[in-house]
Amino acid sequence: MPRPSGEPSWPSPGHAWYVVGVLTFAYLVSYADRQILTLLIQPIRHDLGISDTQVSLLSGFAFVILYTFVGIPIGWLADNRSRRVIIAVGATAWSLMTALCGLARTFGQLFLARVGVGIGEATLTPSAFSMIADYFPPHRLGRAMGVYMSGAAVGAGLALVAGGAVIMLVEKLPQIVLPVIGEIRPWQLAFIFVAIPGLLVAILMMTGKEPFRQGRMKVAGELRGGVESISMGAGLTYIVTHWRTYAPLFGGFAMLSLMKNGLLTWTPTMYIRSYGWSASAIGFTFGIFLLAFAPLGGIGGGWIADRLRQRNYVDAPVRVLIVTIFLLTPVAALMPLMPTAASSLVLLAILPLLLFVIGALVPTAFQLVTPNQLRGQVTAYSLFIVTLLGEGLGPLVVALITDYGFGDDLALRYSISIVAVIFAPLSGLIFWSGLKSYRSAAMAANRRKL
Question: Most CB contacts within 10 A, which of 135, 160, 254, 343?
Fold first, then answer.
């Protein structure tokens, strides 16, 4: 496709928002498939005879073990091939693997199926971030990213609300016995049901257009079909060369993700253990909070950053990010320690609002300083670091403190608070340390011809 002369020709707003809507639906479906496990911890522990630490491995490490590694070549593919096709294939894969979670009979089988879910979902975010940055000009990118990132909140909320309803439904169904497979338990049916919408994602992705790649950096050689591209090796070299910009983004995002994933994974179980709630009750309540407040945080945070950027604050996403993190810290630390469930719920309602302000601004910050040929790869490298430390270790750190620090299931509330107190402010300090370098990189990106 020839490069347009003069200013870049952006896609029509109507089609751009349609594609963002499809991508957001894809994200919420993927997140629902990923998060449904948090409501099924107790029956899985009972039926498979496993510990909290093993559950944390299913929730975190099993998902990320290959998600992180395959994401890097997928990121390169997203920079050079059709992103909508990549996502459609991935959605089909993660849906089938989620259904296989519902057929697992042992810890090992469930672990392998969760690995497969991670591989399929690795196709989504590098491709989606790159597409959105090609659909919207920089001063509107924050809002678009906020809408997309709200898909995680809606997905998590639906996993909890609908997941709780699914659990109540399947528990009332008569016993189901399949040939060869045998009896299907209620928690297994829940996995099978939530796998179905992913197939619709694959169909919808093919209805969108592949946008023109905006903001390409001039490079010598490595031309393929007249389109400038950057190899994986050259891409990694670029990131290392610009480490002052990327290291604080990677590091701060990783610490924040560790805290967030530990909290989101274990909060429903904490309410069951500390306040005597049922899984369906906390699932519904927490899910409603996510559905109501997280999209407001994601879209509102993106809107604030866009407004500041229009006022020539080129580092707006990181500025807003730092302020939000220091508002988040006391809320996350005190939520599990409140003396009553009612007082804890007040803080639990605020958490999604703040978490998804951050969720919208981190990817916006990455895209605004990264050349087009590297957006998928930079996203993949960030997810490699963030997912290993965040999703891989977040649930595990909370579980290890509970199992080996306190040695008491009822101490889960203290484990969540400890992780929040340590890792949330640490992430804010890391982001702050890179603010000056980010500002310089953003100014350089503004000067780059699109």
Answer: 160
